[in-house]
Amino acid sequence: MKILVTGAAGFIGFHTANALLDRGDTVVGLDNLNDYYDPALKEARLARLEKRDGFSFHRIDLADKPAMDALFAAEKFDRVIHLAAQPGVRYSLENPDAYVQSNLVGFLNVLEGCRHNAVDHLVYASSSSVYGANERLPFSVHDNVDHPLSLYGATKKSNELMAHSYAHLYGLPVTGLRFFTVYGPWGRPDMALFSFTKKILAGEPIDIFNQGHHARDFTYIDDIVAGIVACVDKVAAPNPAWSGKDPDPATSHAPYRVYNIGNHSPVQLLDFVAAIEKACGKTATKNLLPLQPGDMEATFADVEALTADTGFEPSTPIEEGIGNFVAWYRTYYGV
Protein backbone atom coordinates (compact mmCIF):
# COMPACT_ATOMS: atom_id res chain seq x y z
CA MET A 1 0.00 0.00 0.00
CA LYS A 2 0.98 3.63 -0.42
CA ILE A 3 0.56 5.27 2.97
CA LEU A 4 0.91 8.93 3.96
CA VAL A 5 2.45 9.42 7.41
CA THR A 6 2.11 13.00 8.61
CA GLY A 7 4.56 14.03 11.32
CA ALA A 8 7.07 11.56 9.85
CA ALA A 9 10.01 13.41 11.40
CA GLY A 10 8.34 13.27 14.80
CA PHE A 11 8.80 10.63 17.46
CA ILE A 12 5.83 8.36 16.76
CA GLY A 13 5.77 9.12 13.05
CA PHE A 14 9.42 8.14 12.61
CA HIS A 15 8.93 4.75 14.26
CA THR A 16 5.65 4.14 12.43
CA ALA A 17 7.18 4.91 9.05
CA ASN A 18 10.04 2.50 9.75
CA ALA A 19 7.61 -0.28 10.69
CA LEU A 20 5.58 0.22 7.51
CA LEU A 21 8.74 0.19 5.37
CA ASP A 22 9.89 -2.98 7.14
CA ARG A 23 6.77 -4.78 5.96
CA GLY A 24 7.04 -3.50 2.38
CA ASP A 25 4.65 -0.54 2.22
CA THR A 26 5.46 2.59 0.24
CA VAL A 27 5.60 5.50 2.69
CA VAL A 28 5.26 9.20 1.90
CA GLY A 29 6.31 11.33 4.84
CA LEU A 30 5.08 14.84 5.61
CA ASP A 31 6.40 17.24 8.24
CA ASN A 32 7.01 20.98 8.58
CA LEU A 33 10.06 20.47 10.85
CA ASN A 34 9.04 23.34 13.12
CA ASP A 35 11.06 24.48 16.11
CA TYR A 36 8.68 23.49 18.93
CA TYR A 37 11.66 21.39 20.01
CA ASP A 38 15.16 21.03 18.57
CA PRO A 39 14.74 20.58 14.78
CA ALA A 40 18.12 18.80 14.70
CA LEU A 41 16.50 15.76 16.32
CA LYS A 42 13.75 15.80 13.69
CA GLU A 43 16.37 16.12 10.95
CA ALA A 44 18.28 13.17 12.37
CA ARG A 45 15.17 10.98 12.36
CA LEU A 46 14.33 12.08 8.83
CA ALA A 47 17.87 11.40 7.59
CA ARG A 48 17.49 7.78 8.65
CA LEU A 49 14.17 7.43 6.85
CA GLU A 50 15.47 9.02 3.66
CA LYS A 51 18.12 6.31 3.35
CA ARG A 52 15.43 3.67 3.01
CA ASP A 53 13.91 2.37 -0.20
CA GLY A 54 10.22 3.11 -0.54
CA PHE A 55 10.31 6.39 1.39
CA SER A 56 9.80 9.91 0.04
CA PHE A 57 9.32 13.17 1.90
CA HIS A 58 7.47 16.47 1.54
CA ARG A 59 8.11 19.47 3.79
CA ILE A 60 4.64 20.96 4.08
CA ASP A 61 2.69 22.77 6.80
CA LEU A 62 -0.66 21.10 7.47
CA ALA A 63 -2.39 24.49 7.44
CA ASP A 64 -1.20 25.19 3.87
CA LYS A 65 -4.36 24.12 2.02
CA PRO A 66 -3.08 24.52 -1.57
CA ALA A 67 0.02 22.45 -0.79
CA MET A 68 -2.02 19.78 0.99
CA ASP A 69 -4.56 19.61 -1.84
CA ALA A 70 -1.77 19.24 -4.39
CA LEU A 71 -0.05 16.49 -2.40
CA PHE A 72 -3.19 14.37 -2.07
CA ALA A 73 -4.11 14.86 -5.73
CA ALA A 74 -0.63 13.90 -6.96
CA GLU A 75 0.09 10.92 -4.70
CA LYS A 76 -3.30 9.14 -4.48
CA PHE A 77 -2.72 7.47 -1.12
CA ASP A 78 -4.38 4.20 -0.20
CA ARG A 79 -4.38 5.04 3.51
CA VAL A 80 -3.35 7.92 5.74
CA ILE A 81 -1.82 7.90 9.22
CA HIS A 82 -2.17 11.41 10.59
CA LEU A 83 0.23 11.93 13.50
CA ALA A 84 1.34 15.52 12.90
CA ALA A 85 0.00 17.99 15.46
CA GLN A 86 1.01 20.70 17.86
CA PRO A 87 1.55 18.67 21.04
CA GLY A 88 1.90 19.65 24.68
CA VAL A 89 -0.57 20.55 27.41
CA ARG A 90 1.46 23.32 29.04
CA TYR A 91 2.50 24.99 25.77
CA SER A 92 -1.18 25.28 24.81
CA LEU A 93 -1.53 27.81 27.64
CA GLU A 94 1.21 29.95 26.07
CA ASN A 95 0.53 29.70 22.33
CA PRO A 96 -3.08 28.70 21.65
CA ASP A 97 -2.97 29.92 18.04
CA ALA A 98 -0.48 27.18 17.13
CA TYR A 99 -3.01 24.55 18.22
CA VAL A 100 -5.82 26.05 16.16
CA GLN A 101 -3.70 26.18 13.00
CA SER A 102 -2.14 22.73 13.27
CA ASN A 103 -4.73 20.68 15.10
CA LEU A 104 -7.93 22.18 13.69
CA VAL A 105 -7.16 23.84 10.35
CA GLY A 106 -4.51 21.23 9.55
CA PHE A 107 -6.81 18.35 10.44
CA LEU A 108 -9.56 19.76 8.22
CA ASN A 109 -7.10 19.81 5.32
CA VAL A 110 -6.27 16.14 5.96
CA LEU A 111 -9.97 15.22 6.05
CA GLU A 112 -10.60 17.10 2.82
CA GLY A 113 -7.63 15.41 1.14
CA CYS A 114 -8.96 11.99 2.13
CA ARG A 115 -12.51 12.84 1.09
CA HIS A 116 -11.64 14.08 -2.39
CA ASN A 117 -9.05 11.43 -3.24
CA ALA A 118 -10.73 8.14 -2.33
CA VAL A 119 -8.52 7.29 0.66
CA ASP A 120 -9.55 3.88 2.01
CA HIS A 121 -8.93 4.60 5.70
CA LEU A 122 -7.74 7.50 7.87
CA VAL A 123 -6.07 6.67 11.19
CA TYR A 124 -5.39 9.78 13.26
CA ALA A 125 -3.85 10.71 16.60
CA SER A 126 -6.14 11.73 19.40
CA SER A 127 -4.92 11.87 23.01
CA SER A 128 -5.63 10.73 26.55
CA SER A 129 -5.93 14.46 27.30
CA VAL A 130 -9.51 14.32 26.02
CA TYR A 131 -10.50 12.65 29.31
CA GLY A 132 -9.83 15.92 31.13
CA ALA A 133 -11.87 16.13 34.33
CA ASN A 134 -13.03 12.49 34.16
CA GLU A 135 -12.14 10.66 37.37
CA ARG A 136 -13.43 7.13 36.76
CA LEU A 137 -10.47 4.84 36.07
CA PRO A 138 -9.50 3.18 33.87
CA PHE A 139 -10.51 5.66 31.19
CA SER A 140 -12.94 4.03 28.76
CA VAL A 141 -13.71 5.01 25.17
CA HIS A 142 -17.35 4.38 26.02
CA ASP A 143 -17.40 7.28 28.52
CA ASN A 144 -18.33 10.88 27.75
CA VAL A 145 -15.33 13.20 27.30
CA ASP A 146 -16.84 16.69 27.25
CA HIS A 147 -14.70 18.30 29.96
CA PRO A 148 -11.12 18.80 28.68
CA LEU A 149 -8.72 20.63 31.00
CA SER A 150 -6.52 22.16 28.28
CA LEU A 151 -6.91 23.63 24.82
CA TYR A 152 -4.71 20.81 23.54
CA GLY A 153 -7.21 18.27 24.86
CA ALA A 154 -10.07 20.30 23.40
CA THR A 155 -8.49 20.27 19.93
CA LYS A 156 -8.08 16.50 20.08
CA LYS A 157 -11.71 16.04 21.10
CA SER A 158 -12.58 18.35 18.20
CA ASN A 159 -10.63 16.08 15.84
CA GLU A 160 -12.81 13.15 16.89
CA LEU A 161 -15.98 15.15 16.24
CA MET A 162 -14.73 16.38 12.87
CA ALA A 163 -13.74 12.85 11.88
CA HIS A 164 -17.19 11.52 12.76
CA SER A 165 -18.89 14.13 10.64
CA TYR A 166 -16.80 13.09 7.60
CA ALA A 167 -17.46 9.42 8.28
CA HIS A 168 -21.20 10.15 8.40
CA LEU A 169 -21.40 12.57 5.48
CA TYR A 170 -18.95 10.99 3.05
CA GLY A 171 -18.52 7.39 4.21
CA LEU A 172 -14.84 7.99 4.99
CA PRO A 173 -13.60 5.24 7.35
CA VAL A 174 -11.85 6.92 10.28
CA THR A 175 -10.09 5.53 13.36
CA GLY A 176 -8.94 7.76 16.21
CA LEU A 177 -6.25 6.62 18.65
CA ARG A 178 -6.06 8.16 22.12
CA PHE A 179 -2.36 7.86 22.93
CA PHE A 180 -1.27 7.44 26.55
CA THR A 181 2.19 8.93 27.38
CA VAL A 182 4.36 7.34 24.71
CA TYR A 183 8.08 6.96 25.48
CA GLY A 184 11.19 5.32 24.07
CA PRO A 185 14.31 5.92 21.93
CA TRP A 186 14.19 9.01 19.68
CA GLY A 187 11.55 10.50 22.00
CA ARG A 188 10.51 14.14 22.34
CA PRO A 189 12.69 16.48 24.45
CA ASP A 190 9.61 18.07 26.05
CA MET A 191 8.51 14.75 27.57
CA ALA A 192 9.35 13.85 31.17
CA LEU A 193 11.61 10.86 30.41
CA PHE A 194 13.81 12.91 28.10
CA SER A 195 14.16 15.94 30.38
CA PHE A 196 14.63 13.82 33.54
CA THR A 197 17.33 11.71 31.89
CA LYS A 198 19.14 14.77 30.58
CA LYS A 199 19.19 16.48 33.97
CA ILE A 200 20.00 13.39 36.03
CA LEU A 201 23.00 12.56 33.85
CA ALA A 202 24.13 16.19 34.06
CA GLY A 203 23.77 16.25 37.86
CA GLU A 204 21.02 18.89 37.71
CA PRO A 205 17.85 18.89 39.85
CA ILE A 206 14.56 17.79 38.30
CA ASP A 207 11.16 19.44 38.81
CA ILE A 208 8.42 17.03 39.85
CA PHE A 209 4.94 18.53 39.81
CA ASN A 210 1.99 17.64 42.02
CA GLN A 211 4.50 16.62 44.70
CA GLY A 212 5.16 13.47 42.67
CA HIS A 213 1.59 12.18 43.07
CA HIS A 214 0.96 11.85 39.33
CA ALA A 215 0.32 8.44 37.79
CA ARG A 216 0.71 7.87 34.06
CA ASP A 217 -0.03 4.98 31.72
CA PHE A 218 3.45 5.07 30.14
CA THR A 219 3.43 3.13 26.84
CA TYR A 220 6.57 1.98 25.02
CA ILE A 221 6.95 3.09 21.42
CA ASP A 222 7.22 -0.43 19.93
CA ASP A 223 3.90 -1.37 21.51
CA ILE A 224 2.30 1.83 20.23
CA VAL A 225 3.54 1.26 16.67
CA ALA A 226 2.26 -2.31 16.65
CA GLY A 227 -1.16 -0.95 17.58
CA ILE A 228 -1.08 1.78 14.93
CA VAL A 229 -0.17 -0.66 12.17
CA ALA A 230 -2.87 -3.09 13.28
CA CYS A 231 -5.43 -0.27 13.13
CA VAL A 232 -4.34 0.75 9.64
CA ASP A 233 -5.15 -2.77 8.48
CA LYS A 234 -8.45 -2.92 10.38
CA VAL A 235 -10.59 -0.51 8.34
CA ALA A 236 -13.25 1.17 10.48
CA ALA A 237 -16.78 -0.10 9.81
CA PRO A 238 -20.24 0.89 11.06
CA ASN A 239 -21.46 -0.68 14.28
CA PRO A 240 -24.78 -2.37 13.38
CA ALA A 241 -25.86 -2.30 17.03
CA TRP A 242 -25.29 1.45 17.43
CA SER A 243 -28.33 3.43 18.53
CA GLY A 244 -28.87 7.17 18.67
CA LYS A 245 -31.14 6.59 21.66
CA ASP A 246 -28.21 5.29 23.69
CA PRO A 247 -25.17 6.46 21.69
CA ASP A 248 -21.81 4.77 22.24
CA PRO A 249 -19.10 7.47 21.90
CA ALA A 250 -16.54 4.96 20.59
CA THR A 251 -18.54 3.67 17.59
CA SER A 252 -21.26 4.83 15.23
CA HIS A 253 -23.72 4.02 12.49
CA ALA A 254 -20.93 5.51 10.32
CA PRO A 255 -17.52 3.86 9.67
CA TYR A 256 -16.00 5.39 12.82
CA ARG A 257 -13.94 4.00 15.68
CA VAL A 258 -12.10 5.51 18.65
CA TYR A 259 -9.63 3.45 20.69
CA ASN A 260 -7.42 3.95 23.70
CA ILE A 261 -3.87 2.87 22.94
CA GLY A 262 -1.92 2.55 26.16
CA ASN A 263 -0.15 0.09 28.45
CA HIS A 264 -3.16 -0.54 30.74
CA SER A 265 -0.76 -0.33 33.68
CA PRO A 266 -0.26 3.12 35.25
CA VAL A 267 3.00 3.90 37.04
CA GLN A 268 3.46 6.35 39.90
CA LEU A 269 5.68 9.23 38.83
CA LEU A 270 8.17 8.69 41.67
CA ASP A 271 8.50 5.02 40.67
CA PHE A 272 9.09 6.18 37.09
CA VAL A 273 11.86 8.49 38.32
CA ALA A 274 13.38 5.65 40.35
CA ALA A 275 13.58 3.51 37.20
CA ILE A 276 15.35 6.36 35.37
CA GLU A 277 17.80 6.74 38.26
CA LYS A 278 18.57 3.03 38.09
CA ALA A 279 19.13 3.12 34.33
CA CYS A 280 21.34 6.21 34.63
CA GLY A 281 23.23 4.90 37.64
CA LYS A 282 22.71 8.22 39.44
CA THR A 283 20.33 9.60 42.07
CA ALA A 284 18.25 12.64 41.19
CA THR A 285 17.87 15.80 43.25
CA LYS A 286 14.11 16.35 43.26
CA ASN A 287 12.22 19.65 43.43
CA LEU A 288 8.66 18.77 44.50
CA LEU A 289 6.26 21.38 43.11
CA PRO A 290 2.47 22.00 42.99
CA LEU A 291 0.14 20.70 40.28
CA GLN A 292 0.50 22.59 37.00
CA PRO A 293 -2.55 24.17 35.31
CA GLY A 294 -4.03 21.84 32.69
CA ASP A 295 -2.33 18.72 34.05
CA MET A 296 -4.31 15.55 34.79
CA GLU A 297 -3.46 13.77 38.03
CA ALA A 298 -3.73 10.25 36.62
CA THR A 299 -4.17 8.42 33.32
CA PHE A 300 -5.09 4.76 32.93
CA ALA A 301 -6.14 3.24 29.61
CA ASP A 302 -8.84 0.64 29.20
CA VAL A 303 -7.63 -1.01 25.96
CA GLU A 304 -10.23 -3.80 25.85
CA ALA A 305 -11.82 -2.52 22.62
CA LEU A 306 -8.50 -2.26 20.77
CA THR A 307 -7.43 -5.70 21.97
CA ALA A 308 -10.72 -7.26 20.91
CA ASP A 309 -10.63 -5.71 17.43
CA THR A 310 -6.90 -5.96 16.58
CA GLY A 311 -5.20 -8.25 19.10
CA PHE A 312 -3.26 -5.31 20.58
CA GLU A 313 -1.27 -6.46 23.60
CA PRO A 314 1.44 -4.20 25.04
CA SER A 315 4.30 -6.22 26.47
CA THR A 316 7.26 -3.95 27.30
CA PRO A 317 8.01 -3.56 31.05
CA ILE A 318 8.73 0.00 32.18
CA GLU A 319 12.27 -0.88 33.34
CA GLU A 320 13.13 -2.36 29.94
CA GLY A 321 11.67 0.56 28.03
CA ILE A 322 13.44 3.17 30.16
CA GLY A 323 16.68 1.22 29.88
CA ASN A 324 16.37 1.25 26.10
CA PHE A 325 15.76 4.99 26.09
CA VAL A 326 18.69 5.81 28.37
CA ALA A 327 21.00 3.63 26.24
CA TRP A 328 19.86 5.49 23.10
CA TYR A 329 20.25 8.88 24.82
CA ARG A 330 23.81 8.12 25.91
CA THR A 331 24.75 6.99 22.40
CA TYR A 332 23.02 9.81 20.53
CA TYR A 333 24.36 12.60 22.75
CA GLY A 334 27.66 10.95 23.58
CA VAL A 335 27.06 11.08 27.35
Folded structure, characterized:
The protein is an alpha/beta fold and 335 residues long. It has helices at residues 11-22, 39-50, 65-75, 91-94, 96-116, 151-170, 192-202, 221-233, 269-280, 304-310, 318-333, and strands spanning 2-6, 26-31, 55-59, 79-82, 121-127, 174-179, 182-183, 206-208, 215-216, 219-220, 256-261, 267-268, 286-288. Helix 2 links the parallel strand 2 (26-31) and strand 3 (55-59). Helix 3 (65-75) runs parallel beside helix 5 (96-116). The radius of gyration is 19 Å and the shape is globular. The relative contact order is 0.14. The mean pLDDT is 95.
Topology:
Elements: E1 2-6, H1 11-22, E2 26-31, H2 39-50, E3 55-59, H3 65-75, E4 79-82, H4 91-94, H5 96-116, E5 121-127, H6 151-170, E6 174-179, E7 182-183, H7 192-202, E8 206-208, E9 215-216, E10 219-220, H8 221-233, E11 256-261, E12 267-268, H9 269-280, E13 286-288, H10 304-310, H11 318-333
Parallel strand pairs: 1-2, 1-4, 2-3, 4-5, 5-6, 6-11, 7-10, 8-13
Antiparallel strand pairs: 9-12
Helix pairs in contact: 1-2, 1-8, 3-5, 5-6, 7-9, 7-11, 9-11
